[in-house]
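Can you please make up a whole protein chain along with its backbone structure tokens because I've never seen that pairing?
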Amino acid sequence: MKKTFTRRIVAAVAAAGLLLVAAPAFTPAQAATGCALASTCEGALAGSLGSTTFKIQMPSKFNGTVLVWNHGYRISTPIPAALAVPLGLASSASYQKISFPAFAPTFGTDVAYIGSGAAEVAQNAVIAQQLLGQGYALAGVGYARQGWSSPEAVQADELLFKHINSGAISGVKKTVVWGESFGGFVAATVAERNPGKVAGLLPTCGALAGPEVAMANAMTVMYTWKSLIAPTLRVANYTSYAQALTDLATVLQTLGGVAAGTVSTSAVGYPVAQANLLGGLMAGEPTVSAVYDGVTVNPAFGTLGTAAALVGGYQPASAGASSAAAMLQNVGAAAALGIMVRYDLEQRARLVAGIPADQSANFTDNVNVAYSNVLTDEQRGEFGDTLNASTVMPNLLNAMLAKMDSTKGNAAARFPANAAALKAVRSLPAPKGVYVVPTVLIADTYDPVVPAGNTDAYFTKVTASAKAKGAIPLVAQYYTVPPADGWTTFAAGAKGPDAAASAAAANSGVGHCNWTVGNGIQVVNAVSALNRIIGNPSAKGVKNANKLMWSTVGVNGDGAFQPPALARPNLSAK
């Protein structure tokens, strides 16, 4: 990225001062008025941490169960349209379009996007209508603050419980708490803290391992980039929003250059695709994306021959090349997580712990990580050829790992954690993996934002907790399954995949919280599975839930399946 562009971002944000946007207008809640059947009721609930929006949708015939929904992570600061569009924020209903004049000189427009405070009641309208048709009342909150706002989100749920129980919904028999991504993390926290008010828990693609694990893995990606691709990246300890936005722009512009064919080798001499693949592998990122399935090779190699196809620019040339291309796509999402969520959490840590601007607010530590030990033997065996494929330098994989390990133990070159910041982050509300209520978990097998290992790690903790209490573990976990024969699609003679056709075929198990197969039947049936366990709190109830889910289209029917374990390369010592 040009230095002038970087300087303009810094100047634009600095000129803007505090990044504040007006709060939306709220309609005060009136607890004495019930929400009628087949109607929608909205308003606001006031708490000590601020006011949260809420929304209730009632079915035409109520079955007595309320599903309290928690939405996913929404970036709490303005993102310029130039960055919001490639991240998919501009087309998301969870973000609102605003005017941010300070961006105009740099980006040519004042258009920006910011996480909305609006409440929602389910993943999407299609799933919501199916659940309403089954008689569920749907309720949800918007949170008083966006970002990693677990204190505000937990309080919002508790305010909504009180509102519902004060007469907002008549005929309530039980309440189930659920949520998606960050919302799954919130739902689990709420359930553990309110076992007497919650009958069941359903996190979908939940970030259940929490921010420390997520940011440790994001740091692995970002430190790989800083070492091998973009040395100007700050990575951590953001003391201004401009620094975070500049890092995000650097990553997205580099990825855009690779996609356009204008960037292949980094400023420090390493092939971007292989360096990025290395970072993604060490961080536990999936090696497939909605476009590249990690298997399918361009048919041109079979008809033209390898030499002619390579000269002609046809890709991917191998399964490894497909995975490298997939990782380039996945890292865009990982970078947004690793930069914007980190900035948000570091600012909160500064506030909670009173950390001054001249001290670090970094809460993940990679000072003593030996990255050559992080890459597994299995990964070396599967991707060694791809990681070594380079005309730039011989023995590329070892050269990249040696470059990264050359700073091991050097606190000035690496990123030591500030104990006060770490303590502040750990003080935020979070699930502990304590068994309190029947629980169903479901995740995408290949999720670049919240790896499926989050679900399995929480399942293991909750199951162990139940057994320690002498209770039957009324817990079940399920995973979506991708199309068996791959999904990368080529038009005849095309040099690269048809992105739209490939993504349409990857309608299950691939991406972040992807429930498109069967109009979201995996999630709808997961709700039914949880109610089977609640209604029959026994091993037989879990068996009945498994019978339903393992026969559901798009769900992996292998009950013994376990996703790859969460990568934990630089999690600070506890």
Q: What stands out?
A: Residues 48 and 536 are 38 Å apart (CA to CA). The two ends are 38 Å apart (CA to CA). Confidence is low (pLDDT under 50) at residues 1-32. The chain has four domains: 1-30+77-116, 37-74+118-172, 177-209+431-565, 212-426.
